[in-house]
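Subject: mismatched residue count in predicted assembly?

I count 177 residues in my input, but I want to confirm that the predicted structure covers every chain. Input:
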Amino acid sequence: MRFHVAELLKNAIGATSSYEVYEADVVVTDDGSRGPVEGTLSLLRTKSGILARATLRLHQPNVCSRCLTPLEVPLELHIEEEYQPTVDILTGAARPRPEDPGTFLIDEHHILDLTEAVHQYRVLATPMQPLCRPDCAGLCPVCGQNLNDTSCACPRDEYDPRWSALAKLAQSDSEDN
Ligand SMILES: [Zn+2]
Ligand SMILES: [Zn+2]
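Triage response: the counts match. Full output below for your records.
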């Protein structure tokens, strides 16, 4: 995810360059799994640096939050971040570091590296509770059977909120009598 931007930095404000992005081996999960990322990137020369706008797609290995079946979550990231040069493109002199430590930087070799932005946007886009399908029935809380495959004979009364509401009604009825 590295792009050499020396030429663009020498251009006037408003200059752009565009790329088709395909990289086969990018970290796509927090535990380090890798996979392909593809999409488009446009770079715009701004007053203070380069505005990177990218639409990137990847498939993230995960598990269903209800039944634990492995699945792949398709993610589309819309990145928009300004990168600031660390050296002056014309003189080669070091430029003052931006005050915000979170600012994305173009290194001293004029490389703009999208990797960290991809990581940050990917973490934000990762669903907290991915599902294998919207109506996933999950696992039986008693025996662990995957209820999408087959049902089981475990008593479900105390786990179904509809039944517990009925049970409360029955209880208050008997208290009334
Ligand atoms: Zn599921
Ligand atoms: Zn069961």
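Residues 16 and 44 are 4 Å apart (CA to CA). Marking this ticket as 'not a bug'.
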